């Protein structure tokens, strides 16, 4: 496995797993893991009138999409590049860490 592939795999699995974990945490505990106030992404969500603490389900769904995208890439599905790129673009709102990981992921996909 090339370094680019390993980095893509690692970033995708970490991002997907974290989103699933954090989404389940907010559903179970009413707050995200970590500090009481979520990161800057919550301001983006509040600006469009959505309560950030109501997004546990969408977090889990997005995390699952990340894991599906990694599976698709490494099982060489014909739709995997478009799907994976779309998932990364969908994750750009998750500031700052999600946006950075998504941007790096997109660059690595392009380099691949």
Characterise the protein shown here.
- This protein has helices at 3-29, 41-47, 56-74, 80-90, 97-111.
- It has 112 residues and is mainly α.
- The protein has one domain (3-111).
- 23% of the residues are buried.
Task: Please outline the helices and strands.
Blueprint: H1 3-29, H2 41-47, H3 56-74, H4 80-90, H5 97-111
Helix pairs in contact: 1-3, 1-5, 3-4, 4-5
Give the structure's gist in a few sentences.
The chain has 5 helices and no strands. It has helices at 3-29, 41-47, 56-74, 80-90, 97-111.
Structural class: mainly alpha
Major sheet attributes? none
Shape: elongated
Distance between the termini: 12 Å
Round the mean pLDDT to the nearest integer and report it.
96
Strand content: under 5%
Q: How much helical structure, as a percent, in the residues?
A: over 70%
Notable traits:
mainly alpha, single chain, 112 residues
């Amino acid at each position: 496995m090339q370094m680019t592939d390993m980095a893509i795999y690692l970033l995708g699995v970490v991002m997907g797993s974290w989103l699933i974990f954090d989404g389940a945490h907010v559903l179970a505990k009413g707050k995200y893991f970590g500090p009481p106030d979520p990161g800057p992404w919550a301001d983006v969500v509040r600006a469009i009138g959505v309560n950030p603490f109501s997004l546990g389900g969408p977090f889990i769904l997005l995390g699952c999409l990340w894991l599906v995208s990694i599976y698709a890439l490494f099982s060489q599905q014909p739709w995997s590049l478009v799907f994976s790129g779309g998932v990364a673009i969908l994750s750009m709102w998750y500031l700052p860490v999600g946006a950075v990981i998504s941007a790096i992921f997109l660059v690595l996909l392009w380099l691949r």
